[in-house]
């Protein structure tokens, strides 16, 4: 059985405000999307990565994996390393849509037929450690149809109504901040997306189908580059990383 990863990178990055799509912002000499794709294709068991980008960027070149000793070829665009050396995972680039869920559906449609476990990952979580992918994959392999990484929250959470008044306060010890990659049995993810509705994550669509969603441990390094402060954090991480 094969694991495929859909890396969604088609957002505009409004909150970051960089003037270009967020996934194409440079961090440490490479684009955010390059870090994310590299992370995904280094994970054991992953056999196909689909990158979903803004339609205007669909011809973008994908650099080879950093740990693979080959020269970058700027002409390469699609199905880049299919049929190349066995240690390379093919990367397919497709155009995304207006909402994140549209982009996920575009990616899902481009996955090879040999894939039966799908991970959906935000390109903006470009430094997600392999261990997070591995925990998610392990839980799906063990039989869960939907698995998400989550972290305990430090602040008290409140659900607030449109009038600005608190509706209720969930027990903080039971709340998790959810990250990606989110892993699914492929049939479950396809079922979750069949309705064509939009949600900020894929697990929510699975929940709405009555599919149980398991939470495994996330990692602070899987934070999402969302605001300029997050981008600063990403720069600092690389500056302090051992080379
Ligand atoms: N995404 C996508 N297609 C969209 C919207 C979002 O592929 N139509 C991707 C983003 O590229 C990102 C991930 O989904 O990797 C998480 O979304 P978010 O952090 O909200 O990114 P943006 O939508 O780009 O940022 P913003 O909401 O600030 O505009
Ligand atoms: Mg967004």
From TrEMBL:
For this protein, the Enzyme Commission number is 2.7.7.60
What sections of the protein cross the membrane?
none
Q: Where is this site: Transition state stabilizer?
A: 15, 22
Protein's pathway:
Isoprenoid biosynthesis; isopentenyl diphosphate biosynthesis via DXP pathway; isopentenyl diphosphate from 1-deoxy-D-xylulose 5-phosphate: step 2/6
- The site (Positions MEP for the nucleophilic attack) lies at 172, 224
Protein family: Belongs to the IspD/TarI cytidylyltransferase family. IspD subfamily.
Q: What does this protein do?
A: Catalyzes the formation of 4-diphosphocytidyl-2-C-methyl-D-erythritol from CTP and 2-C-methyl-D-erythritol 4-phosphate (MEP).
Q: What's the protein here called?
A: 2-C-methyl-D-erythritol 4-phosphate cytidylyltransferase
Organism, scientific name: Nostocoides australiense Ben110
User: Intact protein stretch covered?
Assistant: 9 to 251 of 416
